[in-house]
Amino acid sequence: MLEVESVKRYIGPEHAAETDALLANCEQSKLKSLKFKNPTIALILSIFLGFLGIDRLYQGGPKMFLCKLAMIVLTFGTWWLADIYFNKHIVQEANYEKLLAASA
Asked: Domain TM2 spans what residues (predicted)?
C-alpha cells in the first residue's frame, strides 16, 4: 500500500484533506499503477534546464515544450523566470488529478 504521507508529498498541502479520502476509497491495483512526478525534480529541472523547456518534457507535455521553447526565443527568457515560480505547483496539480482519476 502506498503510504499516505509519501503521496501527500507528491500532491501538495493544498489537497491534503482530499488525499486522505481519495486514498481510502481507491483500489490498491489502481494506486500501484499511478506514476507520480516528483515536484522537487520538476523544480530543479525548471531552474537549470527550464529555459530549454526540459521541465515540460518531464511533465509529459511535448506541445508545451515546443511552445515554451518558442516563447523563450521570443521573450528573451522572461517566460523561463515565470515558469520557475509556477512549475512545482503545476506538477502537484497533475499528480492530484492522477489520484482523482484513479479513485473514480
From this structure: 36-84
- Tell me, what amino acid is at 77? G
For the chain, the 3-state helix, strand and coil shares in percent, each to the nearest 5, are 85, 0, 15
User: 44 near 54, Cβ under 8 Å?
Assistant: no
Distances (CA, A) of 46 to 84, 90, 99: 5, 11, 24
> pTM for the full model?
0.66
Compute the mean pLDDT over every residue in the chain, rounded to the nearest whole number.
Answer: 83
Torsion, CA 38, CA 72, CA 67, CA 86, rounded to 10: 40
Give the Å distances, CA to CA, from 54 to 17, 34, 88, 89: 32, 22, 14, 16
Cell 515536484 sits on residue: 39
- For residue 4, the model assigns a pLDDT of 64
Question: Among residues 84, 5, 16, which one has the least CA distance to residue 50?
Answer: 84
Using the structure block, give the residue that is written with the C-alpha cell 486514498.
23
